Amino acid sequence: MAEERRSHARKTSTASTRRTASARGPEHAARAACRSLEGLIDHPTEGVSAVTRQDDGWCVVVDVLELPRIPDTTSLLASYEVQVDQNGELLEYRRVRRYRRGSADE
Protein backbone atom coordinates (compact mmCIF):
# COMPACT_ATOMS: atom_id res chain seq x y z
CA MET A 1 0.00 0.00 0.00
CA ALA A 2 2.80 2.45 0.89
CA GLU A 3 4.65 1.59 -2.33
CA GLU A 4 1.47 2.27 -4.29
CA ARG A 5 1.17 5.75 -2.68
CA ARG A 6 4.83 6.52 -3.48
CA SER A 7 4.31 5.45 -7.09
CA HIS A 8 1.22 7.67 -7.36
CA ALA A 9 3.16 10.61 -5.85
CA ARG A 10 5.97 10.14 -8.39
CA LYS A 11 3.47 10.07 -11.29
CA THR A 12 1.72 13.19 -9.97
CA SER A 13 5.06 14.98 -9.58
CA THR A 14 6.11 14.02 -13.12
CA ALA A 15 2.79 15.24 -14.56
CA SER A 16 3.15 18.51 -12.66
CA THR A 17 6.69 18.97 -14.01
CA ARG A 18 5.46 18.36 -17.56
CA ARG A 19 2.70 20.97 -17.16
CA THR A 20 5.22 23.52 -15.87
CA ALA A 21 7.63 22.78 -18.73
CA SER A 22 4.89 23.07 -21.34
CA ALA A 23 3.76 26.39 -19.83
CA ARG A 24 7.31 27.60 -20.54
CA GLY A 25 7.51 25.85 -23.91
CA PRO A 26 8.18 27.06 -27.45
CA GLU A 27 5.21 29.45 -27.61
CA HIS A 28 6.33 31.22 -24.43
CA ALA A 29 9.92 31.36 -25.71
CA ALA A 30 8.81 32.81 -29.07
CA ARG A 31 6.68 35.52 -27.46
CA ALA A 32 9.42 36.43 -24.99
CA ALA A 33 12.05 36.60 -27.76
CA CYS A 34 9.87 38.90 -29.89
CA ARG A 35 9.07 41.18 -26.96
CA SER A 36 12.71 41.45 -25.86
CA LEU A 37 14.04 42.03 -29.38
CA GLU A 38 11.47 44.73 -30.19
CA GLY A 39 12.45 46.54 -26.99
CA LEU A 40 16.14 46.48 -27.85
CA ILE A 41 16.22 47.27 -31.57
CA ASP A 42 13.02 49.36 -31.81
CA HIS A 43 11.76 47.60 -34.96
CA PRO A 44 8.48 45.66 -35.19
CA THR A 45 8.62 41.89 -35.41
CA GLU A 46 6.91 40.23 -38.37
CA GLY A 47 6.91 36.67 -37.06
CA VAL A 48 8.92 33.70 -35.90
CA SER A 49 10.50 31.33 -38.43
CA ALA A 50 12.06 28.79 -36.05
CA VAL A 51 12.19 27.73 -32.42
CA THR A 52 14.82 25.24 -31.27
CA ARG A 53 15.18 23.71 -27.81
CA GLN A 54 18.66 24.02 -26.29
CA ASP A 55 20.26 22.86 -23.05
CA ASP A 56 19.93 26.24 -21.35
CA GLY A 57 16.74 27.49 -23.02
CA TRP A 58 15.60 28.26 -26.55
CA CYS A 59 16.95 29.66 -29.82
CA VAL A 60 14.25 31.62 -31.65
CA VAL A 61 14.64 33.03 -35.17
CA VAL A 62 12.62 36.25 -35.30
CA ASP A 63 11.83 38.11 -38.53
CA VAL A 64 11.87 41.90 -38.19
CA LEU A 65 10.79 44.78 -40.43
CA GLU A 66 13.91 46.97 -40.49
CA LEU A 67 13.06 49.44 -43.25
CA PRO A 68 9.51 49.87 -44.54
CA ARG A 69 9.28 50.97 -48.17
CA ILE A 70 6.65 51.56 -50.82
CA PRO A 71 5.81 49.25 -52.47
CA ASP A 72 5.84 46.88 -49.50
CA THR A 73 7.61 44.16 -51.53
CA THR A 74 10.77 46.29 -51.45
CA SER A 75 10.81 46.66 -47.64
CA LEU A 76 13.92 45.37 -45.89
CA LEU A 77 13.51 42.60 -43.33
CA ALA A 78 16.03 40.79 -41.18
CA SER A 79 16.19 37.50 -39.32
CA TYR A 80 17.62 37.50 -35.82
CA GLU A 81 18.67 34.52 -33.73
CA VAL A 82 17.51 35.25 -30.20
CA GLN A 83 18.65 33.09 -27.27
CA VAL A 84 16.31 33.02 -24.27
CA ASP A 85 16.63 31.00 -21.08
CA GLN A 86 14.02 28.61 -19.62
CA ASN A 87 12.04 31.56 -18.22
CA GLY A 88 12.10 33.61 -21.43
CA GLU A 89 14.82 36.02 -20.29
CA LEU A 90 17.03 37.30 -23.11
CA LEU A 91 20.55 35.86 -23.12
CA GLU A 92 21.80 37.16 -26.48
CA TYR A 93 20.77 38.01 -30.02
CA ARG A 94 22.38 38.55 -33.42
CA ARG A 95 21.23 39.41 -36.92
CA VAL A 96 21.85 36.47 -39.24
CA ARG A 97 20.22 37.62 -42.47
CA ARG A 98 18.93 40.76 -44.14
CA TYR A 99 16.68 40.57 -47.22
CA ARG A 100 14.07 42.30 -49.35
CA ARG A 101 10.50 41.20 -48.60
CA GLY A 102 9.80 40.10 -52.17
CA SER A 103 12.95 37.96 -52.50
CA ALA A 104 12.91 34.17 -52.27
CA ASP A 105 15.48 31.98 -50.51
CA GLU A 106 18.15 30.60 -52.82
Automatic annotation (TrEMBL):
Residues 12-24 have a biased composition (Low complexity). Residues 1-29 are annotated as: Disordered. The lineage of its organism: Bacteria, Bacillati, Actinomycetota, Actinomycetes, Kitasatosporales. One of its GO terms (biological process) is gas vesicle organization. This is Gas vesicle protein. InterPro entries: Gas-vesicle_GvpO. It comes from the Bacteria.
